[in-house]
């Protein structure tokens, strides 16, 4: 039997309306042309579809369509943003600030730059998972050129004070990059009020296809972003490669659905999340990791004290959930995000991420509560069944 999906933070299914639209851009009878082909109608039709998608994504971020650079996803967007800023400076003249709770797709490019001689400060979050503007301010030096801070954490759903950090960066003339992969479609994203220079997003986190995303690059900024993929000069030279029309139609349609409004959906998901938390907290000795209210509606990272998370996950195999971050689940290391918030190894190992989304129902929630109730009471009654 297919498990009930509770891992929307890892990826979302493609909305059927999105998939249907994408199908029209693949085959001979569809608009399969190369958007860069200027000499015939099939190229123009594909280009029009790509530009329609660009407008939808720009609207979603309150950006201008000329500020959207297509990429293969948030990993590439983060790499382009961080390396694309850093290459403007000599290594010994460039200090970068980021946070300990970032996705690896930010931490690893920053680490790479560190091996090249760039200096880096990795700021710790508070126990609630929030990275404070004071902590960022305290890390600033006269050589700080870039701050990279995620809007919403992928493991906890905790929201960072992006407006305040944007203001700080603006005052100090420091470029500001935001990884918004977990924010888009969950909280309002506004590149103007956030005062960001660069912002990463990924379609598969908001009911679009995998393998496509965008980087917002502010036009009214002195920044000359250095391209990381050289080739045909696509995307105004910032990212070469033939544009994948069907993928871009997909991200555009997914953005269009959000542009029609997502507050009702967020409220519905928030109520389901509250119902789930009520059921889980009744089990006793269960806590939420991360700030209680500064969080997205669909996210719960729960510590089941005294219960091994891996054993618990095995016991609720009818639910598709995640222990720690999906991206590190190949290793048995405790989540570095939870550790950075001050959780012990054993608390981190007792924690699971449960994330809800567009297709979650009340019946799903009630099934999850009863599965967890049976599993947790079983494991607590028979601690020898737990490995660790
Ligand atoms: C999923 C995710 C990424 C990676 O996005 P891809 O499009 O899968 O490369 C980066 N950052 C955050 C916060 C994410 O949640």
Concise structural overview:
By secondary structure, this protein is α/β, with parallel strands linked by helices.
The outline comes out as globular
Distance between the termini: 28 Å
- What's the oligomerization state? single chain
Tally of distinct domains: 2
**Number of H- or I-type helical stretches:** 12
- Give me the Rg, rounded: 22 Å
Order of helices and strands: EHHEHEHEHEHEEEHHEEHEHHEH
Strand content: 5-15%
Tally of DSSP β-strands: 12
The low-confidence parts are: none
The major beta sheet can be summarized as: 7 strands, mixed
Strand order of the largest sheet: 2-8-7-6-5-3-4
Report the mean per-residue pLDDT as an integer: 96
Helix content: 25-40%
CATH domain topology of the largest domain: Aspartate Aminotransferase, domain 2
Bound compounds, each kind once, are: pyridoxal-5'-phosphate
Secondary-structure-derived class: alpha/beta
**CATH level-4 homologous superfamily of the largest domain:** Type I PLP-dependent aspartate aminotransferase-like (Major domain)
Architecture of the largest domain in CATH? 3-Layer(aba) Sandwich
């Amino acid at each position: 039997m297919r498990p009930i999906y509770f891992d929307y933070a890892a990826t979302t299914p493609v909305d059927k309306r999105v998939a249907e639209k994408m199908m029209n851009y693949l085959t001979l009878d569809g608009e399969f042309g190369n958007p860069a082909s200027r000499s015939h109608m099939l190229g123009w039709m594909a280009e029009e579809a790509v530009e329609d998608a660009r407008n939808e994504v720009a609207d979603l971020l309150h950006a201008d369509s000329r500020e959207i650079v297509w990429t293969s996803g948030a990993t590439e967007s983060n790499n382009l943003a961080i390396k694309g800023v850093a290459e403007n400076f000599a290594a010994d003249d460039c200090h970068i600030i980021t946070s300990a709770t970032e996705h690896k797709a930010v931490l690893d490019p920053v680490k790479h730059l560190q091996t090249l001689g760039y200096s880096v400060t990795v700021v710790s979050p508070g126990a609630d998972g929030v990275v404070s503007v004071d902590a960022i301010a305290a890390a600033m030096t006269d050589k700080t050129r870039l701050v990279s801070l995620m809007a919403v954490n992928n493991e906890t759903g905790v929201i960072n004070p992006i407006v305040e950090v944007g203001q700080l960066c603006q005052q100090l003339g420091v470029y500001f990059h935001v990884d918004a992969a977990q924010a888009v479609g969950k909280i309002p994203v506004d590149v103007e009020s956030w005062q960001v220079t660069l912002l990463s997003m990924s379609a598969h986190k908001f009911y679009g296809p995998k393998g496509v995303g965008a980087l917002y690059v502010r036009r009214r900024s002195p920044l000359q972003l250095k391209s990381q993929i050289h080739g045909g000069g696509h995307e105004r030279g910032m990212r070469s490669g033939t544009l994948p029309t069907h993928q871009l139609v997909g991200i555009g349609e997914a953005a269009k659905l959000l542009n029609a409004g997502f507050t009702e959906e967020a409220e519905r998901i928030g109520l389901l999340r509250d119902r789930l938390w009520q059921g889980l907290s009744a089990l006793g000795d269960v806590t939420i990791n991360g700030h209680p209210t500064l969080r997205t509606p669909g996210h719960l990272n729960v510590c089941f004290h005294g219960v091994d998370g891996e054993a618990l996950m095995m016991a609720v195999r009818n639910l598709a959930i995640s222990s720690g971050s999906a991206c590190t689940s190949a290793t048995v290391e405790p989540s570095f995000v939870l550790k950075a918030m001050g959780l012990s190894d054993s608390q981190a190992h007792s924690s699971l991420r449960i994330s809800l989304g567009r297709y979650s129902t009340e019946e799903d929630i009630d099934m999850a509560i009863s599965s967890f109730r049976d599993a947790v009471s079983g494991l607590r009654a028979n601690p020898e069944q737990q490995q660790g």
